UniProtKB/TrEMBL annotation:
Species for this entry: Microbacterium algeriense
Domain RNase H type-2, first and last residues per copy: 19-219
Cofactor details (free text): Manganese or magnesium. Binds 1 divalent metal ion per monomer in the absence of substrate. May bind a second metal ion after substrate binding.
Reactions it catalyzes: Endonucleolytic cleavage to 5'-phosphomonoester
GO molecular function, one term: RNA-DNA hybrid ribonuclease activity
Subcellular location: Cytoplasm
InterPro entries hit by this protein: RNase_HII (IPR022898), RNase_HII/HIII (IPR001352), RNase_HII/HIII_dom (IPR024567), RNaseH-like_sf (IPR012337), RNaseH_sf (IPR036397)
Annotated EC: 3.1.26.4
SUPFAM superfamilies in alphabetical order: Ribonuclease H-like
Major place of residence: cytoplasm
Top-level EC class as recorded in UniProt: hydrolase
Protein's name according to its UniProt entry: Ribonuclease
Function: Endonuclease that specifically degrades the RNA of RNA-DNA hybrids.
Amino acid sequence: MTVIAPKLTLERRLLGECELIVSLDEVGRGALAGPVAVGAAAMDASGARRRVPEGLRDSKLVTERRRPEVAARAAAWVQASAVGWASAEEIDEVGIMRALGLAASRAVQAIADQGVALDQALVLLDGNHDYVSKVHPAPLRVRPVIKADRDCASVSAASVIAKVARDGYMAQLHEEHPVYQWNRNKGYASPEHRDAIRSTGLSPFHRSSWAIADVPTLF
């Protein structure tokens, strides 16, 4: 199967209308355990003239072995990057969509804390639903784009940065709870994960409102 590399076509067009793009993509939305993470990547017009890093793709299209090096190149390529998080407890308390908004808002704020001015920025969000604006305390211009993680290089950068960060966190949690094999399944509903839930029960890092042993495999 031929994998089409993401481009900067949309970003360059949008940067004719605004000074900065902050691209967002989520990781971990469908997992049974662990946080949801949203990557953020800021790009201005000068950055959009730079060559897309070698191997950059939507994180799902990059092998696990190659993701860390691709993520490092992506972080060096953009003006600023960050990852925002919402915990399993928050997901259970407020639901997945608001938790996504919290994580996205935290990622955007982390970008701002690095000195990036957001007042002239456009938020480019993968998907078809704006889950950021209702949560972020300041007004944001948000542009949802379906398949932006596949087609838009800046969103691909946010995607792979978030994926590597979340996978690393799940590998750390595996050391505390090895029975669930989170170093392999990253908290998703793999067969070994479901078997461990049946035999051991839930950990504090499970989304207890979701973690049913017989849910379908999600990846």
